[in-house]
Amino acid sequence: MSKLDDLTAWRYLIAFSKTGTLQAAANMLNVDVSNISRAITALEKSLGCDLIRHNSRPMELSETGKMVVRRMAQILRAHDSLIQKIIDDNSALTGNIRLSSAPGFAARRLTPLLQRFQELHPNITIEILSGFKPADVQKGLCDIATITGEPTLPGLCYMSRGRNVYLPVASPHYIQKHGMPFDPINLRQHTGLVYNGPVREETKFLYRGDKQAPVTYASCIRSTDILAIRNALLEGMGVAVDMPLVQIYEDLLAGRLVPILPGWFRPPVECFIVANHEAWHMKRVRIFLEWYAKEMQALFSSYEDQVSAVVGLPQDIPTVDRNKLYLS
Question: Which CATH class is domain 3-91?
Fold first, then answer.
């Protein structure tokens, strides 16, 4: 590296300009006087001109030296200010976090969680976004996002938030009118309420043990809005084979919806709370991501505990360590 790029050397020159002697500059910076002398000499050699009048007694800055000190002092102040801002931003539990969540979850479940976090950290604000994918997190378009499935892109930090369980359900009114489907082949006599939004792919197959069966309906109503599908289910407009438990656990407990296709499921999917490496360096992001992942794990586990008495659930076989932070 050229000495001209060495900020320490420029600091030595500015210290000399303030104190008037090399020894006084060395004392101010708590370094050997030889360090000061060598650094300034190296600057002069690189520039091809004197910054100090070495033959004068006492030594003083040359005209070029005076001009350089004025300009370089401004540059170093700007540099110090930037570094301090970065340190303050990264260490402070203040500021804004841009959080992306699935729209359905954000609409019905997210606010109580964020209220609890703000009680712990009142100086951190959360901006709620939706629909962001791992590539958007990688690009820094949001600070933290919840995604379905383990990230594969590089440059991400992530923790499990637990699994998404998907259940086949219908309303009692619909079952009374159209009959109970016990096997996926029976779906050919029913109207399917199908989610085809950005959070996950449309369900094409169901599984029971090592058996696989295609999903084929007599007719379909498709929507990118999971809450619209829930409303249609409650209105008795059809069946859904893959409703997220988080959206319907109260309906199952209250009997507004009932399980169908006993033993058949869309496989559960592990979900993750994700940030990119740059965001992770901010203390507020680290604190929130780890807290949020643990809160979400507990919340989704509580849904399963509450409905396990009224509906069969797929076996929980974690694919990752849910206490571990992963880096990609």
Answer: mainly alpha
